[in-house]
Amino acid sequence: MAFKSLTPEMQEIVKKRFDTPTLSQEAGIPPILAGKNVLLMAPTGTGKTETVLIPIFNNWARERPKPISILYITPLKALNRDLYERMLWWAKNLDFSVSVRHGDTTQRERKLQLEHPDDLLVVTCEQLEAMLVGLRMKELLKNVKYVVVDEVHELVDSKRGVQLSVALERLRELCGNFQLVALSATVGSPKEVANFIFGGRPHELIEAAGQKQLSVLVESPFPNAEDRLLAEKLFIGDSVAARLRTIYELLKSHAAVLTFTNTREAAETLSSRLHILDKDLLHEVHHSSLSREMRVKTEQDFKEQKIKSIICTSSLQLGIDIGAIDLVIQYLSPREVTQFVQRLGRAGHSVTKTSKGVIIAGDGDDIFESSVIARKALVGELERPSIHSNSLDVMAHQIIGLAMSTYEVPPKTVYEIIKRAAPYRELTFAQFEGVLKFLESIQLLWSDKDKIVRRRRAFEYYFGTMSTIPDNKTYRIIDTTTNTPVGSLDEAFMAEHSESGSSFIVRGRPWRVVSVENGKVYVEPLGDLTSAVPAWEGELIPVPYSVAQEVGSLRRTIADLLRKGKKQPDIVAHIKNRYPVSNQAAGHMISLIKRQLDCPVPDDKSVVFEHFGEYTVVHACFGSLVNETLARFISAMLTAEQGRTIASKTDPYRIIFRDVLPSDIKAIIGKYKSADIEPALTAALSNSSLFKHRFIRVAKRFGAIVKGADFSKINVERIIKAYENSPITDETLREIFTEKLDVEEAVKVFNELHNGRIKFVDSPKLSPLGELGLKYELHDVAKPDRPEAEIMKVFGKRLLNTKLRLVCVNCGKYDIVLPVSDIPDEPRCSKCASKLLAAVSPFATETKAIVQKRLKGSDLTGDELKKLMRIRHSADVMIVYGKRGAICLAGRGVGPQTAARILAKMPKTDDELYKAILKAEKEFLRTHKFWAD
To answer: 408 with 452: CB under 8 angstroms?
Structure first.
């Protein structure tokens, strides 16, 4: 037994925590105890952390080296907090000290860590970067003997992982070699992960799988009468109400539940609807946009069972111990098997308990996709990570870091340190020199063949760009008709579409920019989508090729059974034999394919073309990245041939083109070879919105664009032109090819289309699956979402609900705040019956005092005289036009003069009046920032 190889003292301590070793402890403790580098791979909740800590603590206790001797690196601050609590128990029993260092650590705590260093320090990847250039901290890091990297699967396919791999090499330069132990949840390619973290050094790979039990069910409830009432109450669709009701029932019937969503907006929306449904339901929201204090409180409240559920994003999917969880809910498809398995592992967070999860699937594709992912999760079919190779922006940051560690450093030394890290194994010295020269051109360093010397700006750059996580500034969108927020736009979209008059689509509706100011975008609704472009609404996890292919296969299976005349119960049983779905979820899938049978059913062995109006829908079950690759290639070739820009939109199961015939697309596929794909994309990408979006990120990481730049005032085209042949452009393209496209798989698909293994099929009409694509991907392009009459109705409602303060200018005694809807057609003072009432802002509490002061004949200040003039003008409008005057004055930025001008034109109907007020509001938004104070 593994525990018997520990020292007697350690065995006694371990007995307090464990009766017998877990599978991972039995396999992992001996090699770690022997001082070997180890990658321990096991499902969440199987005791990986203690497997690593027990042998390291055992060896540490025998030697008791100088601090800091153990470095524990984690990807999330929340994980740090959890680990700290667990390690305090070991620290107390073993008489060693432990502390945590991350972005929220106070200066006082950091000072204490320098003056009284702890034996074990828990840090994030970014904090290691900061520590490696600290003069006093570097001396402490020379004592490091053991390094643990937790949740390595979260790092391996990101630039954070690339950054960490070089940081570990820099750490070796300080302290010599150390024992490196990495922890990972189960992944699709363990050897790749091991090679990534150890950089080719000797190691042992231990896969302690097969012990954790999973239970998954895909639910897609049918709406009932109760759901229809709920839908009316919450202004949502019946099917959405059914899903909400199902989540509510699951929360009520379980003790502690984590509900995962794919976006922060979805988490907030789901929470708000649950609050409306049951204000007494104890739950909170947890995502990265919330403050640290809020996140910590939520975690603690959940541990202490003060709340029974957290609705969260990926912020809680890592191995954080936040108490006993008996269910994980995934709202809508998790899109990727690895993501789902990690989230599912939060339930039953111990070796002996089953991880129980439910996917609440949406309509259409979502049910098929959720079913496939659930099946793959149960049998461990996980995706391979896509590792960044030769990331130039990360390398730039590491070069500066090494130059800051000492006054001057030879270029060859820097190159060799970076090249030791696995992601840079193929790095050439010419590539390294190119980045070096670029950093010199933007005045971050000075170099020659013998030395690299940092420049003054290097400090600001290094500490300002330690995180490779995109730092996107967001702009809130405000609907001028309702004065309410409708969403947000990121800086990349703003850089391209921020001028007044620009139009875009967000949340399925078209909008036109009226004004941009103070981080807000004021917009008006449009009734026509033809001139609008889809806004960048965040990056959903891409659906893998393998998942999309199996969705196609499942469609084909159901279609074949229906064509053979099989009864519904038999088909349901057939589906459930392979997929963990409810009867209703299976019924939804059968119903959709049954409606599709009038047209060809797109599957894994065919590509179906549908033409509808100006759109061509190409059904292709190839996943997010392959479809994006093929769409961009075909668009680029058509653009070159036809001399006009070809628009396209993709999802994991379709490519949708505008103003392109199916014959045009087939001709491109027949004319070109798969070898043309990559060079054509390289040439075409530089003009795309995707390139601009990524370019901004990369330029920030290089230090060419300062953090917090206002992209409503920056000409991005000019910046891209200035750095046209620089490492920024090279890295932007490399990043896109790694993260957003899949050329390798697209080439295989292209070849199969050529040789006929994948068939072309034409559909006689737009099918139900085609309608889904138009509805979700082009935001209901077949019809305007909000006609003008509805816009005016909503705008009028806002004006009538606006509150105004009515003050009698005649007697100065009447002062009341009312919504405009409650103001009579011909309002009068209840004290003196005068019609001379001023309508001002409800917050203008000084109005009555100014009027009374004038009536008494007292002297007024200059500011009071200005306000009195406006009060009198307002009263003039009200005495002539009554309630209509109040409606005008309720408009944002509509003063007495503008109101009088609008009403003098005698608008006949309410809609005419509302249109005039809305026009005045837009004019105010466009021009008020240019007025003198």
So the answer is: yes
Identify whether the C-beta of residue 289 lies closer than 8 Å to the C-beta of residue 318.
no
| Rounded alpha-carbon distances, angstroms, from residue 765 to 559, 601, 650, 901 | 18, 12, 20, 53
**pLDDT tens, position by position, 469-510:** 766 666 778 877 777 776 667 665 665 555 666 776 665 467
Look at the block and give the residue holding tokens 């079919």: 381
Would you state the structure tokens that stand for residue 21, as one six-digit string?
A: 């070793």
Which pTM value belongs to this model? 0.77
Where in the sequence of the chain do the CATH 1.10.10 domains occur?
A: 392-464
Indicate the DSSP class of residue 133.
T
Residues of the chain with CATH 3.40.50.300: 2-207, 214-379
Name which of 248, 272, 736, 776 is nearest 485 in CA terms: 272
**If we measure between CA atoms, which residue out of 66, 701, 79 comes closest to residue 394?**
701
The fold adopted by the segment(s) 2-207 is Rossmann fold (3.40.50)
Instruction: Count the Cβ atoms, other than its own, within 10 Å of residue 108.
Output: 8
- The CATH class given to the 214-379 domain equals alpha beta
Residues sharing a CB contact under 8 Å with residue 46, sequence separation 6 or more, in sequence order: 22, 23, 24, 208, 211, 212, 351
Phi first, then psi: what are they for 198, rounded to 5°? -100, -10
Q: Contact 843/813 with Cβ under 8 angstroms? A: no
> Which residues are CB-neighbours of 159 under 8 A, at least 6 positions away?
388, 391, 393, 394, 468
Topology adopted by domain 392-464: Arc Repressor Mutant, subunit A (1.10.10)
The stretches of 597-707 forming alpha helices (DSSP H) are 624-642, 662-671, 677-685, 689-702
Adjacency order of strands within the sheet including 452-454: 408-409, 452-454, 445-447
| Tokens standing for residue 34 | 């022997």
pLDDT digits (tens, 9 = 90+) for 605-646: 999 999 998 899 999 999 999 999 999 999 999 998 988 888
Which residues on neighbouring strands pair with residue 215, listed in sequence order? 356
Whether the ω angle into residue 206 lies within 30 degrees of 0, i.e. cis, is no
Q: What SS3 string covers 537-563? A: CCCCCCCCHHHHHHHHHHHHHHHHHHH
| Per-residue tokens: 671 | 């004319």
pLDDT in tens, 130-177: 999 988 899 999 999 999 999 898 899 899 999 999 999 999 999 988
3-state SS, one letter per residue, for 289-333:
CCCHHHHHHHHHHHHCCCCCEEEECHHHCCCCCCCCCCEEEEECC
Cα 554 from Cα 560, distance rounded (Å): 10
